[in-house]
Design goal:
- The protein has 6 helices and 19 strands.
- The chain is of the alpha+beta class.
- Strands 1-2-8-3-4 form a 5-stranded mixed sheet, with no helix packed on it. A 5-stranded mixed sheet has the order 10-11-18-12-13, covered by helices on one side.
- The longest helix is centred in the C-terminal third of the chain and has 14 residues, at about 220-235.
- The protein is globular and about 50 Å long.
- Mean pLDDT is about 95; it is low at about 280-288.
Amino acid sequence: MCSGIELHGGRNARLVMRPAPVGTGLIFIRTDVKDRDNRIAVRADSVANVKNCTTLGNFAGVKIATVEHLMAALSAAGIDNLYIDVDSEELPALDGSSEPFLKLIEQVGVISQPAPRRYIKVLKTVEVTQGDSWVRIEPADRLELDVTIDFDDHAIGRQRLVIEPDVRSFRERLASARTFARAHEVAALREAGLSKGGSYDNAIVVDGHKVLNPGGLRYSDEFVRHKALDLLGDLYLGGPIIGRVTAMKSGHGLNHSLLMAFYGDPEAWRFVTLQHDIPILEPDSISA
């Protein structure tokens, strides 16, 4: 269980994760909604909005926003079946990274369920492009991410990260990388009624060549690390993937376009079942 301020809505939100049986999948349950279906299945076709964050929804119009940081932690930890109770329209931002979610998982541990794990194996290359931004998925022996960003802001600039995001590399290289925004974007978001809960406690703010956060950065390339984190979370909406994903200046919208193009091509993928090859997290096994 955790609670905190929503990044965009500014309300206090409470989140509880509960075990679910084999075959359940990942299910958000909006505990504050009583008059209609309050369950939202985590699937690529459940995406309702990709502006500023990834938002999922159901046919009853119930939505849950800013799911990508939790999804990244669940991906790395290899969690396939889970009930996620949330009492608001958005997940708590916490510190703007995935680390608090990963620590919650590590505190209680992960149980290996009595069933082989189902993966999506990439069979052929699929690419989507928007202007000078693009993202591509292609066959590989395991999940690999190759992420490049390129911003005019001198404090960000051009950065690249290549990673095979298993639980160990995720914990060491991605989990604590925070979301970020440029100062002019923050002003525009607030004028639009968003980023009501944003602060230096849950986001990096950049103004030209300066990082405005008093504590500075956690890594010199924290920006691309967070973009890789976001990509991992967005990809997990479709389940665990075996393939290589290369992203150039991508964001939530393009990530989702890739998923829809990929899953929309029956020749591009197939299901495979494998024994669970992700290290099982015992309670408090990663306390350092």
